[in-house]
## 1
Amino acid sequence: MSRFKVIVAYDGTNYHGFQKQNNALTIQEVLEKAITSIVQQPIEIIGAGRTDTGVHAKGQCCVFDAKTNIPEENLIKAINSRLPKDIVVKNVQSVQENFHPRYSAKRKIYRYQILNSKTCDPFLYRYAYFYPHTLEISLMQEAAKYIIGEHDFKCFCSAGSSVQSTIRTVYSLDVNKHDELVCIEICGNGFLYNMVRIIAGTLIQVGIKKLSPKEIQNIIDGKDRKGSGPTAPPEGLTMMEVNYEDE
Amino acid sequence: MSRFKVIVAYDGTNYHGFQKQNNALTIQEVLEKAITSIVQQPIEIIGAGRTDTGVHAKGQCCVFDAKTNIPEENLIKAINSRLPKDIVVKNVQSVQENFHPRYSAKRKIYRYQILNSKTCDPFLYRYAYFYPHTLEISLMQEAAKYIIGEHDFKCFCSAGSSVQSTIRTVYSLDVNKHDELVCIEICGNGFLYNMVRIIAGTLIQVGIKKLSPKEIQNIIDGKDRKGSGPTAPPEGLTMMEVNYEDE
């Protein structure tokens, strides 16, 4: 029995999130069926992050355990031949048995895209939040600085989450605009439920001047979900990368 | 009665091309229905180019004639509110009655995208031709030089086309690679049926060394469709822009 690490990219538009559910199609279910049919034994997948309905991934990291002699290059091709076009296995690699995609993760990178134009875009509406009102990017960049660092991020955690600690470290948070696409990229040691989407929604409030950058500090100190902005919609969010090495 | 120039972007994946047909959904039909419902009179659309099934546009140019007092900014919003998300009107502007999107056009720009990677991409498979074999970009760039200029392009015209002249001028033809995406961008005074896709297919033959760059000259001189490469698939093609000004 070997453990395999799988890097997966997917367009989450047509799926009810990553994690398996009764009566709803999920990324995990589709992946498990494809891999099972190739390695010809029942396998179960563990993912690094349980992306929500409509959220995408470029570098979701999963593992499965199986007994197989199929070389890794061939595994990639074979699994992809059984997957729909909106889910693609980018890499398969055998790893040590104690490697765990969630517990071994050191850093995760998410990207939130906002299409900030007068009219929507037929090529981007699935992958960016269409927001036609003017956004002051420099204010959003200033606000982002308050979020970087180790903080209790309870204010950016959806109610109903049952995590033990709401303390996380954000290593970087960049806001950039290229043409009409605003890109919020965040790197941290872990994220609370809906944290990136609430941060995006809060930065948008700053961008339209409903909040000042300085107020972010009060929002964090307040430790209350009610103080922060709305949860930005899922289509803008992509899980970019999970890192496992200490830097 | 005024003539309106409309710039339209669309993801052609789910349409049977631009031009209206019986028993198949087309861009023209969807646009005409949306505009008719807004200006509340039957209108007919003329487009600058009849893109094929699965071909996309970022700057298709159309006109329609209507009697309406709706300001142009409001027309854009109103029409878009009646369109599906994969068709977006980017601009509406009143023009002179003698403006014709095809006959008045001076230059058209098309882009052909090739995803040249080992595995496909869930975000690009609709917008790029997935071609996993190694492409020698410098050879494709060398081959492109033979295509630039005024030539009889009969070799790059699909059989069955009934145009009077197969002479066209290609002003520029650039081949570039960014990460795993090969981008072929071509500007000309007009294009024969399937011309850009056949040029793309022929450049790919050069990229895999089945043709040498110099052979392009013989292919053009031969004036025979059989001499050139296969027609590259539609998903890679996007109509980028139509220019109406003399430069």
## 2
Amino acid sequence: MIGHGFMGAAHSQGWRVAPRFFDLPLDPTMALLVGRDASAAAAAAERWGWQESADDWRAVIERDDIDLIDIVTPGDSHAEIAIAALAAGKHVLCEKPLANTVEEAVAMADAAATAAERGIAAMVGFTYRRVPAVTYARDLVAEGRLGEIRQVRAAYLQDWLSDAEAPLTWRLDKDRAGSGALGDIGAHAVDMAQFITGLSLESVSGVMETLVAERPRMASSVGLSGTASSERGPVTVDDLALFTGRFESGALGSFEASRFATGRKNALRIEIAGSLGALSFDLEAMNELQFFDATAPAELQGFTRIIVTEPGHPYTGSWWPAGHMLGYEHGFSHQVKDLVDAIAGGTQPTPSFADGLQVQRVLDAVERSSDSGSAWTPVGS
Amino acid sequence: MIGHGFMGAAHSQGWRVAPRFFDLPLDPTMALLVGRDASAAAAAAERWGWQESADDWRAVIERDDIDLIDIVTPGDSHAEIAIAALAAGKHVLCEKPLANTVEEAVAMADAAATAAERGIAAMVGFTYRRVPAVTYARDLVAEGRLGEIRQVRAAYLQDWLSDAEAPLTWRLDKDRAGSGALGDIGAHAVDMAQFITGLSLESVSGVMETLVAERPRMASSVGLSGTASSERGPVTVDDLALFTGRFESGALGSFEASRFATGRKNALRIEIAGSLGALSFDLEAMNELQFFDATAPAELQGFTRIIVTEPGHPYTGSWWPAGHMLGYEHGFSHQVKDLVDAIAGGTQPTPSFADGLQVQRVLDAVERSSDSGSAWTPVGS
Amino acid sequence: MIGHGFMGAAHSQGWRVAPRFFDLPLDPTMALLVGRDASAAAAAAERWGWQESADDWRAVIERDDIDLIDIVTPGDSHAEIAIAALAAGKHVLCEKPLANTVEEAVAMADAAATAAERGIAAMVGFTYRRVPAVTYARDLVAEGRLGEIRQVRAAYLQDWLSDAEAPLTWRLDKDRAGSGALGDIGAHAVDMAQFITGLSLESVSGVMETLVAERPRMASSVGLSGTASSERGPVTVDDLALFTGRFESGALGSFEASRFATGRKNALRIEIAGSLGALSFDLEAMNELQFFDATAPAELQGFTRIIVTEPGHPYTGSWWPAGHMLGYEHGFSHQVKDLVDAIAGGTQPTPSFADGLQVQRVLDAVERSSDSGSAWTPVGS
Amino acid sequence: MIGHGFMGAAHSQGWRVAPRFFDLPLDPTMALLVGRDASAAAAAAERWGWQESADDWRAVIERDDIDLIDIVTPGDSHAEIAIAALAAGKHVLCEKPLANTVEEAVAMADAAATAAERGIAAMVGFTYRRVPAVTYARDLVAEGRLGEIRQVRAAYLQDWLSDAEAPLTWRLDKDRAGSGALGDIGAHAVDMAQFITGLSLESVSGVMETLVAERPRMASSVGLSGTASSERGPVTVDDLALFTGRFESGALGSFEASRFATGRKNALRIEIAGSLGALSFDLEAMNELQFFDATAPAELQGFTRIIVTEPGHPYTGSWWPAGHMLGYEHGFSHQVKDLVDAIAGGTQPTPSFADGLQVQRVLDAVERSSDSGSAWTPVGS
């Protein structure tokens, strides 16, 4: 694993736990953790249970005893590492966003396609696809239970910028973060909408906004946040993005990515309306899926709160009995399971780098639309 | 009262019930109901308890014993009737939308302004403002409990067109209905957002859509719906409208009016995020208001489900003890109360015709934006 | 109508509104309101729209132009008035509880049985049966959708005594109120459980409690509450009752009536579990019924939130379009409709005085059980 | 660890994960798993990551390199193993229920008290105490935010016996399971109520019931369930228990343990009402705590849905950022953390064996009350 931020903890938990609950066809070893700072990497490896640590990822990807590279670094280094790793014949799991630019993402998808011919797997980490309720939502759509999809409403809502005095973290600096709310959390909303519906967005119209344009510079950093100094500096990324998209089928979607949604800590919500039914999901109640069956007798219709923990639901049979809840990090174990299954089975895992690229293209189209007065903008291909 | 459709029943209930629960300074009499068809008008008058009926509204507005005209006809006749009634010195209550075009609405607002100088009252019926939870939401914003408003999310969701075989009612015919989802229900979302926040929309970007463009022609009409024939005809109004708006303060809002929101019968939802707090309301749980206080200790923060039936809440003290629910039509009694209070007090009621005009201008700007590829479009004035 | 407290307002609204929304076979006239104090009765009659007022109910029940007596006085006068009215050949609607003692209730049920032979109708006002969601719950059970009923959980929760300094109102005085939480609100929980399930309770075990035994005496009375004086007096009724009951079928029920349920203003909740399904209802969301269908595929099972406002649901088709909410007082219109239908049709309305008596017997058995250390006590018959 | 059923998986996850997220003062090693069947134990050890396996627990507790014994066997063996382990100077973590009889539990509590004098720790596994929302509920009560506790409503609802044809598993056989719904899940409701309120139950009145008395014998066993044969046999444990309890303070509680609560898979619910506030929790939404503050202004009062994932909430700061959900098994990591902290700090962990014994005494009193017609029965001491 390369990198050891918050995502490093989550990915480590996935590798640690998946083999204990799922019958994996291969036996993954948590071999080595890489970080720029050798001592920090060693501490993280010790904390999270990796056998070794190192500070030079280039050397690591050449090692014969390493089969898979898990990339959890910031987005600006994804392309370089992933392309090199694939070239070295390593399977790659790359945390989202695939890259900070479409150009990088194209190069990565190309590298993945080439590697695939040699049986090398590449996967991008849109982990929320593997929340059982989300996977099950996809299944219900695929079974036709919603009929023709008409409308999608997706929003990823956080509120850590509601306070105008919240300090300038690196995530608010375009040079380092690449993008703001749109790229960080809007990406999840786009991927989830496309994943569940099985439809791609073809064009968009949107607006990106920086609601609070100046904030106190940070005196020191603690976790995702930090303490403020008296000096102020500019916020150079969007903190709110609103856009509308048209899917290939003609269905319309409304999307929102907000860091100003006061009171919503991590609410990734999606509602999908079809000719025969509807679905509603909120990550704040992540074990539940609301399903409306428009084919039931009118008097009995309503949204059914399905608690997605039954043995027959995706992934859940391997965990606990029905009614026992799963949490945030279980998706990382599901990701490991599916990736290991694909590698052992000689198939390509999903979401592929091409899928990750397509999401980047959507976000890029939103940005271009916003720059041109919200004009409808085709998603490139 | 002129007209006797669904809104006639609701307005009649308002006039019938308000004096029984509120101490009104005047004693309204349900004098006369007007309809084009004399016998249908007579039947409605009998059913709803109006003393007389008539079929010529022009004669009625000249009668000395009539002080107030309540207009519940389709939108295309609002302007003519209201302007004539105001000219005849009658107070006017006009159901929303104020008119089918901005031009008509301008003329009505002008007439109301002129009449106001003579002490004549004019009010437009955005009744949802008078759901106690909505009025209370406005109060909380006005008290500063949300701080600076940052973001609004408003949607009016219905699903009576989800079924592609639902027939072509007059509401789907532009010539008769004037507009579709945007004008019918989007108007409520716009008015509510502006009412609660106290902010006006200044520009918009939007898209209007007709998701199902052809439907069976109607063989016969029953209530809001009807039975289908085998012939098909075109839907000439929008059935889905999505738009983004910028308020005068710089805050952003996302808006949706949908008749395709499968499973949502009459869900007018609004969420408002401010620097100090947030609110959430859904007409499907109309006695409740969710309030988030961002100034509370972090560990105690959360959305509080306020059941808006306390004696100290707007309007509710005149009805039942705390915890006893109100329904849809109570807003019509509140409207009567506020209108009668204004007339007796010699003040102008709200929402005024000017308020109604401003909502029309917003909808018009959305339509123009949609016609020009969702380009940002200023709200006229 | 005899009496003019809070229930008088609710019953008046029922008589006023029902004929405007339902096609009644008879045309009820709000003829006369009786109260002990002539001027207070006159004021209430004026306020609520009764044509006359009077202060001697005995004279009124002899009048030939009065066909029906609606009794909304305190429980200690129900028996005397109802028996006299029935003897005088008047139809009777009597607010719950039927009486303050089983003995009185027996006499009333006997009088009603005798009167029924002459075609006179008698009905007791358990209005919550006529909340559409509750009536629909009964229908679902009657259709067999829950299979064999196994378990019932019913609670009526209020909190107006949570504050130990809330003053001693007449409702806390056994001599005047007859009983406390059990008789006032527990009666509703018992009636609703028996109504929905169609099963009678046969034996009970319970405890009645007075959690705060002394409270400030009241200096003055305002509405249901009042202001406190510095002197204290004893609470002589229960403020919390908990009991278990066995239905005739062997099913078990748990019941609670509490005036100490902090935060619950008027929460009458019931949950019913059967071999094929389950139901859940809460008066705080009175337009909703939660239904669980255990015969659905396991992965799709969950509680469905049915919004009981469809045209095909009980009563709702006569009001507003689907999705438009009803409130507390609509049940009183439904009661009027059903009573008038029964009278016109020559049938006996439900709930009958015998039904009211049976509820009294259950409450009496709870009281006797509580007095004997919660021993199981048969419900008399 | 001794035993390797469902609880073995959960405890293993606790030992595996806790050191990766919490800074533990000691470094626990997953040394050895014991099971009666050597090959099954070896397979479980391999699966869950224990270094060794064994089939003789008596030998294991004598090993010098073992410091702590984690007992996850069925209840009938707890006493023997725990007492021997404590005598051998090992710290003990024993899954609930402490024992199948009060006598055994007394012996265990005595052994723990003796061991404590030598610095040996003993803890019983009521893991739900360590759901962050539950721990936080306890904190709020301890801070006085609820004032004087008046009333508790606790229910543990499952539905795996709703189907009358569900087969006879060992859990329905008194000889093997010791008890039914009361002992298995009612124990959790009792512990949680006492834990959060800080109050002990002093007397109870209850009824235990077997709603379906005969079921198909099991042909084969799979997980918690199995397949049915055509032969039938008796259910010898309760499948529903309802009881009322009085706390030492005079507060009353109602309790329910049901395996017939159709539609509720694992709903451990508790509601607590006090003079200043109230709390509500449901394990089906385990990251949430509903809090009502009766000291807030009346118009702002309501239940606040606190998502218990803030850094300042119990345990949660060591996991993920605010708004990222935890699941069922996280309580097992919290249990490990608190146990290891106690051992390292030389203090006794809670819940102690004495706490476990007290819960057994409550359950025993309920059983005795049920046997004597629900008469009030003191909880022994």
